[in-house]
Design goal:
alpha+beta, 10 helices, 6 domains, 481 residues, rod-shaped, Serine Threonine Protein Phosphatase 5, Tetratricopeptide repeat
């Protein structure tokens, strides 16, 4: 385009000459169809006027020839004025139609698309901005504007256009589908920029649950706790959950968790005591949620201490030590003076009292893991006139050799390559007699002893050997060997 004042070659679209400084007056071009309409209208008017003049001349008689000068002038004058008025009216209406047409949203959008197809995105965006000023409710204007900015790698401008659609102050004028589409385009731009934190902020500010659920994977919500904080009278299995795939980090001592803290993988069983549980979530895009902290106080009632049916004291015959069962608890005991725990020997039934002096400690532990107070008993078993336990074991081995069960007193036998050995275990009342119980062990040559299922008896006073068995009522009996 050349400047009409100085002839300087100017870029298209400039309104002031950058050489002489004169303003350029641009006359809008009429659309071809509108120009044709005006031409047709004027032609019709001229034709009608000519027909009227011919008819007037044919109707005049020769007698009226001398009056044509003045009368003819008076007749044609109002017709010419009428034609001129009609011409002006048509021109005005045509221009009004043209002015309306060039300001319609479809005209502006089509013009913008035409510019964009030529790569003239700046001109296309100018058309769209002009259209948006008149039609702010048209979301397609903003979508096209965002697309053209995006094609020019002007992401911030594209985001600005899309933000107008999701803005809380303007959203009511747009359909839900338009708002969802705008969120989708914004998330795509942020994701391409790897701005996952901005996506998280965008979604957290969105109150449309449907839209939030569409992009759940980008969101990092605070972990949810399966129990409200407070006091409980039972052990609680606290579960932590997140809104999408990722990792939960937590602490239970009130300290602030970080990515070096414990990773949640299974329920946290909170037993007696006070717990301050703090946790946060990190999604697969590395976005962290806020930290959530809850406090729990667990007050569990301790079970009753075990009730042992025997009192401490000295006993002179084989005696079984029995403990009354406690509902909802398991009983454990020790005989080495250590404190009993859930890792100690479990009580499963009456215990034969050991020879000599023994300190027993019993404890009940509830299903919640709460321990009772410890019950202590000291028993002394002295069997007057009883043979020594070593003699009892020797009597048993000799008897097993006699019956051919063993090859020799070293424990070799014809059935196995290893050797068998025998150890005193306890004193047991069988029927009306007291017996030593002796367990059998097998050594395969590695030095590792494994207990067999055979238990032998030796009468504590006369040394008679037998094998432990059971009668039809399930009571102990001595089986002679």
């Amino acid at each position: 385009m050349k400047c009409p004042h100085c002839g300087h070659e100017m870029p298209d679209g400039y309104l002031i000459c950058d050489k002489c400084g004169e303003e350029i007056q641009i006359v809008p071009d009429f659309e071809p169809e509108i120009e044709n309409s005006i031409s047709e209208t004027l032609s019709t008017l001229v034709s009608q006027q000519e027909d009227d003049i011919v008819e007037d001349m044919e109707e005049d008689t020769e007698e009226e020839d001398e009056m044509i000068g003045r009368a003819g002038i008076r007749t044609r004058k109002p017709q010419v004025i009428f034609a001129f008025v009609i011409l002006l009216l048509v021109a005005f209406v045509s221009y009004a139609l043209y002015a309306y047409h060039i300001h319609t949203v479809d005209y502006q959008i089509n013009k913008a698309v035409a510019y964009a197809e030529k790569g003239a995105y700046s001109e296309a965006i100018a058309c769209l901005e002009a259209a948006y000023a008149d039609y702010p409710e048209e979301a397609r204007i903003l979508f096209l504007e965002a697309d053209y900015y995006y094609l020019q790698q002007m992401d911030n401008y594209a985001l600005s256009a899309l933000m107008k659609i999701i803005d809380a102050d303007t959203t009511p004028r747009y359909s839900e589908e338009d708002v969802e589409e705008a969120y989708g385009k914004i998330v795509t731009i942020y994701a391409n920029q790897k701005e996952y934190g901005l996506i998280n902020e965008l979604l957290r500010a969105c109150d449309n649950e449907r839209i939030v659920s569409m992009f759940q994977g980008y969101l990092a919500m605070e972990p949810e706790f399966s129990y409200v904080e407070g006091s409980y009278a039972e052990v609680i299995p606290l579960k932590l959950s997140s809104n999408t795939a990722g990792t939960i980090y937590y602490t239970t001592d009130g300290t602030k968790p970080d990515r070096n803290s414990q990773i949640y993988t299974s329920p946290l069983f909170l037993e007696t005591g006070e717990y301050t549980v703090s946790a946060f979530f990190v999604n697969d895009y590395g976005i962290e949620s806020d930290i959530v902290t809850k406090t729990y106080v667990i007050n569990l009632a301790a079970p009753n201490a075990p009730v042992v049916e025997l009192y401490s004291g000295e006993y002179t015959e084989a005696t079984m030590i029995a403990v009354e069962p406690t509902e909802g608890c398991k009983t454990f005991y020790t005989t080495d003076e250590s404190e009993p725990t859930a890792d100690s020997v479990p009580y499963t039934g009456p215990i034969p009292m050991p020879l000599g002096k023994t300190l027993f400690k019993f404890v009940n532990i509830s299903s919640e893991g709460i321990a009772s107070e410890v019950t202590t008993r000291t028993f002394t078993l002295r069997l007057r006139g009883a043979i020594p336990t070593e003699t009892a074991v020797a009597n048993l081995v000799n008897r097993l050799v006699e019956i051919g069960y063993l090859t020799d007193t070293a424990g070799r036998n014809p059935r196995q390559s290893g050797v068998l050995s025998y150890q005193f275990s306890s004193v047991l009342r069988v029927g009306e007699e007291d017996y030593y119980t002796i367990n059998e062990y097998y050594d395969d040559g590695t030095g590792l002893l494994s207990r067999t299922d055979r238990v032998y008896l030796v009468q504590v006073y006369n040394g008679t050997a037998a094998q432990l068995g059971y009668d039809e009522d399930g009571e102990f009996k001595a089986v002679v060997i």
